[in-house]
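User: I'll paste a sequence; please echo it back and then give the predicted structure.

Assistant: Echoing your sequence first, then the prediction.
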Amino acid sequence: MNPGPTDLLRLGLPEGFEQRTVLKVYGGLTVHIASRFDQICFKLYASVDQGPQSKHFMDLLRLEPTKPELHEARSWCFTHDPSPTFADQLGQALAVLDADDDKR
């Protein structure tokens, strides 16, 4: 378990997050796992912060997000950081992913 991104709980998870979780039961342990779409949101947000050489960006590529998924994830990312600097960095990340044709 990675407690690092716990600020996301304070700032807000993507709408519908709880309904999309995947439930896994391991004996007496029940785990709610973020859906693929929510992981795309989280990885895009982290990729902007840490750059295209980061583990998060590589994870995002492995999820093979579609352009519509990336556009939705982009909208969620702006709820966490609406600054012009973040918008520029997010645009650069989306350009690398070939998903920058839809503007904010």
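The chain has one domain: 4-96. The first helix runs from residue 7 to 11.
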